[in-house]
Design goal:
two-stranded antiparallel sheet, mainly alpha, 137 residues, 2 strands
């Protein structure tokens, strides 16, 4: 792992639901591809209804993780970007473990990482990252 997140701010240790993390991850991914992230794009990427996206956005806005303005689309706040980076970090640590230590193929390692990135505590992921950095591949 080249990027260590072992000293994440405590506020990022507060758990988000797996669903909220998935929405943040997709919004973050889409924001790198498109200037404006629209609800319909998020719905399509997650294979959910626009109503589901709007409900999730309400929760994410209330948590201060996203903003949404007409013609400007959905944007992650600084806190939202940090939370999305945490999800990516967790995913990459798990994917690396599955791929390099257990010998899973890329697709299978990615699928397993998607499941575990939402359920393991940050402390477990930190320890796994430390273990991987000390263990030869």
């Amino acid at each position: 792992m080249s990027t260590s997140h072992s000293n994440l701010p405590a506020s990022l240790d507060d758990p988000l639901s797996a669903s909220a993390e998935s929405y943040l991850d997709v919004i973050h991914e889409l924001s790198h591809r498109d200037e404006i992230v629209r609800s319909v794009d998020v719905a399509e990427k997650l294979a959910v209804s626009k109503v589901s996206v709007n409900k999730a956005l309400h929760v994410l806005k209330a948590a201060g993780l996203v903003t949404q303005e007409p013609y400007r689309g959905i944007r992650l706040t600084e806190e939202g970007i940090a939370a999305a980076h945490r999800v990516t970090w967790r995913h990459e640590v798990w994917r690396s473990f599955f791929q390099h230590q257990l010998g899973l193929g890329e697709a299978e390692a990615d699928a397993e990482a998607c499941r575990l990135e939402h359920v393991a505590s940050n402390e477990v992921v930190r320890r796994l990252e430390r273990y991987l950095s000390e263990k030869p591949r």
